[in-house]
UniProtKB/TrEMBL annotation:
Pfam families associated with the record: MscL
Protein name: Mechanosensitive ion channel protein MscL
TM spans (from-to): 12-31, 73-93
Keyword Membrane: yes
Lineage, highest ranks first: Bacteria, Bacillati, Actinomycetota, Actinomycetes, Kitasatosporales
Topology in membrane: Multi-pass membrane protein
Protein keywords: Membrane, Transmembrane, Transmembrane helix
Main location class: membrane
UniProt-listed Gene3D superfamilies: Large-conductance mechanosensitive channel, MscL, domain 1 (1.10.1200.120)
Superkingdom: Bacteria
Length: 153
């Protein structure tokens, strides 16, 4: 039982994901500091004066509980976009490259899809013979344009 667990944990994809998560957590701290100390002051300065930030006061002046803080939302959006870009360019792209060198395709575009005529589900692979949702038989996939019909040459 422990040998099976060891084999599961030591698989290459599990280790790669663990390393990626550790890197992502470290980068998250860096990006959070960027948005807190660079983006937030710029957004607050855009509001001008001595306001609490970019936004509107809905209740009594100076009450943070009734302040609609658009600046914090914009900062969170910038944080999300920067974080996703960092994860993509520093984790996903190199991982795809390494796996491609090993002959493994990861994060590939999905193949062609078709719609089930019985239940109208739209996410069936083009080569499917039965619908995964209703179990109805599917018509054979049409041959791509320019290719010979099956069984002929």
């Amino acid at each position: 039982m422990l040998k099976g667990f060891k084999n599961f944990v030591m698989r290459g994809d599990i280790v790669a994901i663990a390393v990626g998560l550790i890197i992502a957590l470290a980068l998250s701290t860096l990006i959070k500091a960027f948005t807190d100390f660079i983006v937030n002051p710029v957004i607050a300065r855009a509001q001008g004066g001595h306001s609490m930030g970019l936004g509107w006061q809905l209740g009594r002046a100076g009450n943070k509980n009734t302040y609609l803080d658009l600046g914090s939302f914009l900062s969170a959006a910038v944080y999300f976009l920067v974080f996703m870009a960092v994860v993509y360019f520093f984790i996903v792209v190199p991982y795809k490259h390494v796996q491609a060198r090993r002959g493994v395709v990861v994060f590939a575009d999905p193949g062609p899809l078709k719609t089930c005529p019985a239940c109208l589900s739209e996410d069936l692979p083009a080569a499917a013979l039965k619908c995964r949702y209703c179990g109805s038989e599917q018509p054979p996939a049409a041959a791509p344009a320019g290719s010979p019909a099956p069984g002929t040459r």
